[in-house]
Amino acid sequence: xxxxxxxxxxxxxxxxxxxxxxxxxxxxxxxxxxxxxxxxxxxxxxxxxxxxxxxxxxxxxxxxxxxxxxxxxxxxxxxxxxxxxxxxxxxxxxxxxxxxxxxxxxxxxxxxxxxxxxxxxxxxxxxxxxxxxxxxxxxxxxxxxxxxxxxxxxxxxxxxxxxxxxxxxxxxxxxxxxxxxxxxxxxxxxxxxxxxxxxxxxxxxxxxxxxxxxxxxxxxxxxxxxxxxxxxxxxxxxxxxxxxxxxxxxxxxxxxxxxxxxxxxxxxxxxxxxxxxxxxxxxxxxxxxxxxxxxxxxxxxxxxxxxxxxxxxxxxxxxxxxxxxxxxxxxxxx
Length: 334
Fold this sequence. Notes:
The chain is an alpha+beta fold. It has helices at residues 51-59, 77-82, 87-100, 113-116, 198-219, 251-255, 294-297, 312-317; strands at 37-48, 104-110, 123-127, 135-141, 146-152, 164-169, 177-183, 223-229, 266-267, 288-292, 306-307, 326-331. The chain has a single domain, classed as Endonuclease/exonuclease/phosphatase (Deoxyribonuclease I, Chain A). A hairpin with a 7-residue loop joins strand 3 and strand 4. The two termini are 20 Å apart. Residues 1-16 and 22-34 have low confidence and may be disordered.
């Protein structure tokens, strides 16, 4: 399949982060043909750090339950002990990335382009400007026209949790798509958002920022998607959106309200059988999601949602990740 798009201008620098190879890959062309297929994916790569950076972080790791103090970049000592990846580990992850064969991947827990490039050597990157080691952003295949968008800093609750990252595909054309990468607060996978558990309270506070981003795209009539590690089983998150006191109760019901109409959302995993990454896992529901706007969902290729799983023996002997990618294909359209 022909993937390369016509390049008509110099690269644009991206102001949302410090990645040297980030930015818009080609200038906008109103009549530029879109690819026949666009594969979107999301993958949490579990503390993916380039070896040269890992060594420095390992020497100054933070013991369990200790505060990193004023250090803006640190890793826990258990991560330092268990997740130092070898060349063979990176090679295995890169092989699964080739099997995934995605045009755009929302990636989480990745320490910037130097780590991401070892898994996605044929992609370019947009990352959050946050200094944290557990960063997030996008890997975009060479030849796909894009522009790095701004961080959704509001989602971080003033730096307490992770911000979001926006990406614009095919900018300034009729085929433009807005994407948002997220890695939401963990610890509230199935409980209602009004649960007394602190993690649910934090997640509930993230919902308004997420809904505002969705509603802004929908009101502008844009095609959009939210991709990432929601840390929540959205397919088992029924309404009502709010409890009797008016507090958020269901994340999915809150964002999937069809108001504006383009905010009538579709979870790409809807109707798909859940598959664990390898037989050693005992999860029973997806927490990594690709959520499509109404118009974008109409372009979904039927039956294209899938998960790339790990070879069981390799999952035991290699330091892979505790997540594996999910993906969905979209037909060309505008």
